[in-house]
Every structure is written in C-alpha cells, then in structure tokens.
Amino acid sequence: MKKFLFDLFPLILFFVAFKFSDIYTATAVAIAAGIGQFIWLKATGKAIEATHWINLTVIVVFGGATLFFHNDAFIKWKPTVLYWLFACILLGGKWFFGRNLMQKLMGEKVAMPPPIWDKLNYSWASFFVLSGALNLYVAFSGTFTEAQWVNFKVFGLMALLLLFVIAQSIWLGKHMKDENEPLTALPASKEERS
C-alpha cells in the first residue's frame, strides 16, 4: 500500500495544486514531485523501476512543454501518451521479441498456460489503448471543462484501473494452475479401470 501511495504522490500533488491554483501551477508541482520522488529513490537506495523512468520522462517532457509554451494541451496528452507507451511496450515485446512482459512481471507468483498469458498481455494492452483514447475524449471533445478533466485524470482513470484489476483477478482465478496439482492426469491402469 505504501508503494502504491508513493507512486501516486505526484498525481495527488497535481490535484491539490490545481484546486488551489491553475493547470500550470499544478503541472509545475507534478514535475517537481516526480523529480523529488526520483531523487528520494536514488538517495535511499530503493529500486528504480522502468515505470518510474517512463513516468518521469513523460511528465518532464509534456509538463515542460506545457509550461514552456503555456499550452495545457501538452499536459492533457500526457496520460494518453503514457498509456499508449505502455500498450506499445506490451505489444512490441510480444510481436517483435516473442516475450510476454506480463508473464515476466508476474510469472514467479502465478502459474498459467502460455495462451492465458497471451490473453492477459493483450487485455492489458487493450485497456491502455482504450483508457488513452478515453482521456483524449474527455480532454479535447469540448464536452468537459478543464476541472472535469482533472477530476477524470485523477479519479476516473484510477477507478477504471481498479475495476479492470478486479475483473482481471476474477478472470485469472479461473485459469491459474494449482502448484500442488499435476498438470496432466495419467490414464488409469487396466487394474484401476476394472
């Protein structure tokens, strides 16, 4: 739980700063929080995961462009770019390198047949593609205000992620192998059948 909250730290500060100021202040706060988070990980010798690098790069690039050009379109694109980047990593790993990254990530904790791992990989990639598209709709359709987009970015996308994780957990439960159970049953001998 601590790690989850730590990873959300820049997003929480973005939301709080937006409520007290504007999108540009919130963006600057999110960039500072992301850099601060990274420095803290380095200083304490904690593991820096690939997602930390990706998140930091995307917030610095798109947040920096938002502040430099004084154009909020860049920060509104940030969740979409991040989600689509994750989808490309999952799909690219499978299509170009024959590696199922979801299996690599969870394989030590979960035992499943390869086709189920492939379905899991594709379902996560699909979730990221659809979430990124939904973010663009909320951000740029003209139907929602900037404040509604911020609420959607902070709470809506998080709620979608949690619902997806719950659905995935239920689905995975049906497909996981029991480590104590043999993978295939041996045919009964003639004596056992009679």
TrEMBL record:
Which InterPro entries does UniProt cross-reference here? YciB
Task: State where the protein is found.
Answer: Cell inner membrane
One GO cellular-component annotation of the UniProt record comes to: plasma membrane
Superkingdom classification of source: Bacteria
Keyword terms of this UniProt record = Cell inner membrane, Cell membrane, Membrane, Transmembrane, Transmembrane helix
The residue ranges crossing the membrane are 12-41, 53-69, 81-101, 122-140, 152-172
Q: What is its main location?
A: membrane
In what way does this protein cross or attach to the membrane?
Multi-pass membrane protein
Described function: Plays a role in cell envelope biogenesis, maintenance of cell envelope integrity and membrane homeostasis.
The entry assigns this protein to a family as follows:
Belongs to the YciB family.
The identity of this protein, by name, is Inner membrane-spanning protein YciB
Q: Where does this protein come from, organism-wise? A: Pollutimonas subterranea
- Per the record, the gene is yciB
